[in-house]
Amino acid sequence: MQTSTIGVLLMAYGGPGSLDDLPGYLADIRGGKPTSKAVLNEMIRNYTQIGGKSPLLDITTKQAEALQNELGDGYKVYIGMRHWSPWMEETVRDMIKDGIKKAIAIALAPHYSIMSVAKYQEKVRAGLEMFGGDIEFEFVNSYNSAPKYIQALAERVQDGLSRWDVSERDNVHVIFSAHSLPVRILKMGDPYQDQLFETARLIAASAGLPESQWSWSYQSAGRTPEPWLGPQLEEHIKALAEKGIKNIVSVPVGFVCDHVEILFDIDIKAQALARSLGIRLERPPALNLDPLYIGALADLVKERIPN
């Protein structure tokens, strides 16, 4: 029988709240390594084109509020960021002060990797150590096949296809994508790519897409010399153009809300490339506050709390 408040920690990557935040934000991502002026200026240009800041915090806050309403009494939902305010460690401090003894931690990234979700979890443990807490955290490692999450994305596919006349829809190609990571994770036995491919197959099946009508690509690879998982979205679009594809729906499955990897990398950069190749590219809305996605998060919490 539940007798005390259960904490729910939504963990996200973080993003700059203004252009002035960019130098510090990039420094944190790069582990304190200096950012070249050229890269900083490029990032300033990119963020300027999407409104001068990341919408991640605003949307994550609203997702947390929606989840709180879905869960109701007996739960308190918090948010913590890996690379910007509100810092994960400080959110853990707040949970300790609130007297939370048991908590469920969910990354707003459905696919597990030791280079992504595991890093979020390390921040939580660091917060407990830093502030002397004894909260019993249960981590949700992944939820790449959660039924409501899959259903929500299948509806995005149908939304995208519906933007063409019925007679044209069989000729529309769907690209699923997620953030690239270094290729070396494959040798480490990391489950990231396998989980992504499973998600794509489940969405395609739910949306009724034949194998010939969808494909996979990665996007937003980092700026390091080592090889990253591919094909990259831009190169994949070029390859599809060479095959005569003229209509594309982009459905990023690894991102659960709008931020720079969607608003710039897809809506501006990939869109410009598509236009230059004579391709019509459509992107349905990100999950954001979709009730199905919020319901998927609520299910993850409730599954871990005994009646």
TrEMBL record:
One of its GO terms (biological process) is heme biosynthetic process. It comes from the Bacteria. Pathway: Porphyrin-containing compound metabolism; protoheme biosynthesis; protoheme from protoporphyrin-IX: step 1/1. Gene3D superfamilies: 3.40.50.1400. Fe(2+) binds at H179, E261. Keywords: Cytoplasm, Heme biosynthesis, Iron, Lyase, Metal-binding, Porphyrin biosynthesis. It catalyses: heme b + 2 H(+) = protoporphyrin IX + Fe(2+); Fe-coproporphyrin III + 2 H(+) = coproporphyrin III + Fe(2+). It is found in: Cytoplasm. GO terms for molecular function: ferrochelatase activity; metal ion binding. One of its GO terms (cellular component) is cytoplasm. It is an enzyme of class 4 (lyase). InterPro entries: Ferrochelatase, Ferrochelatase_AS, Ferrochelatase_C, Ferrochelatase_N. Its EC number is 4.98.1.1. It holds the Pfam family Ferrochelatase. Belongs to the ferrochelatase family. Catalyzes the ferrous insertion into protoporphyrin IX. This is Ferrochelatase. It comes from Candidatus Chlorohelix allophototropha.
